[in-house]
Amino acid sequence: MRVAFLGLGIMGQAMATNLAKAGHEVTVWNRTPGKLVEGAGIAPTPAASAQGAEVVWLCVSDTAAVEQILFGTDGIDQSLTDGMIIADSSTISPSATVKFAERVRAKGVAYVDAPMTGSKIGAANGTLIFMVGGDAAIIDRLNPLFAAMGKKIFRMGETGKGQATKLAMNLQIALIFEGFAEALTLATKLGVDPKQLLSLIDATMVRSGVVDYKGPFILQRDFTPNFPLRLMHKDILLTLEAAKEARVKLPALETVEEIYEMATEDGHRDLDYAATLTLLEKWAGIQVKSEAA
Ligand code: NA7
Question: How far apart are CA 266 and CA 280, in angstroms?
């Protein structure tokens, strides 16, 4: 398919690469020039990238970035033609998504929100899991593209429901990780070897994908970003905003948000979100390290 791919960050770069590798005709655009994707053309503006494209795929930081690319100067809306599909894999506001979809629908353009999970490794391996909102027939047309970038796709309902689901998923990741980080901090302070604690967790119902994934990085003190703290913080703020709009109270997430705020003040915004652990360590006066390591 002829695809314009906009946003070559940690996730987008790998996703566009997999699309080109699968034989799709890909044209990329990134705000900061100079990023390349093997096998893909480069466009100077969002509008230019979308010219002649069947599908325009976005993967940028936040709601404002998506709005800018769609409707700002040299935005995609200048190149929209009847029958085109816009797919957005950024994690952004569900209510803004619905508004963006309404605006492009007037030009005969379908809008699918397709945020994903699987982190940097899933993007590189083409094993992302997409949670998608939009018309079922339109999503079917995107299947060859989903197949090139991911291993599973879940349709969650109409446009906006993919983003709503993504916020509910990241809410759990943030809270599960916080529980894990607090347990590691307490156990270490009380003299338990964290490596031994991880072995026990692995054998019990406390085990989770989040713990499996983050445990080894923590034992190696490796906080290089797979999912940057600044983006998880952005998602937490989005979730609290969506909850407020829907009149839902999320007291645990509100507390965890403050930890992300303080970790940001400590200069950790570009590290992995697992670096929120270092704040707990600072308060406890310990470092989670295995004696056996
Ligand atoms: P990154 O690695 O932080 O990349 C963000 C991308 O978004 C990058 O290409 C940025 O361009 C682009 N960006 C940011 N702001 C803008 C604006 N205002 N206009 C155009 N482009 C912009 O994020 P990830 O790849 O890890 O994640 C992307 C999304 O998936 C995000 O929503 C996550 O929560 C999930 P730059 O290179 O800085 O010019």
Answer: 12
